[in-house]
């Protein structure tokens, strides 16, 4: 039986910003990072996806859902 000797290190970092402050979220799964970035952008945040080595990968622009009144 083989056991894992170390945990997965983050491979993708999300930098989430609303223009006044920013926060970081790290992921070891690229697909999950993409889904989270899309969700943050859908909520109106700017999102930059960065590799663990610091290379810029993708940018997600904020988009808000329009509500009919």
Topology of this protein?
Blueprint (H helix, E strand, L loop, with lengths): L11 E6 L4 E6 L2 H13 L3 E6 L4 E5 L9
Antiparallel strand pairs: 1-2, 1-3, 3-4
Mind explaining what this structure looks like?
The mean pLDDT is 86. 19% of the residues lie in helices and 33% in strands. It has a four-stranded antiparallel beta sheet, covered by helices on one side. The protein has one domain (12-60). The protein is of the alpha+beta class. The longest helix has 13 residues, at 30-42. Strand 3 and strand 4 (56-60) form a beta hairpin.
Spans with pLDDT under 50 lasting ≥5 residues?
none
Gyration radius, in Å: 15 Å
Mean pLDDT: 86
| Series of secondary-structure elements, N-terminal to C-terminal | EEHEE
Number of helices: 1
Write down how many β-strands occur, each being a DSSP E stretch of 2 or more residues.
Answer: 4
Separation of termini?
60 Å
Strand content: 25-35%
Largest sheet: spatial strand order? 2-1-3-4
Overall shape: it is elongated
Biggest sheet layout: 4 strands, antiparallel
Structural category is alpha+beta
Percent helix: 10-25%
Overall domain count: 1
What labels would you give this structure?
single chain; 69 residues; alpha+beta; four-stranded antiparallel beta sheet; 1 helix; 4 strands; 33% strand
Short description:
Helices cover 19% and strands 33% of the residues.
């Amino acid at each position: 039986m083989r056991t894992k000797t170390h945990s997965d290190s983050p491979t993708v970092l999300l930098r989430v910003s609303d223009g006044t402050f920013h926060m970081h979220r790290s992921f070891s799964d690229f697909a999950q990072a993409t889904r989270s970035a899309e969700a943050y952008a859908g909520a109106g945040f700017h999102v930059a996806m960065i590799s663990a080595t610091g290379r810029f990968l993708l940018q997600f622009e904020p988009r808000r859902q329009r509500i009919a009144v």
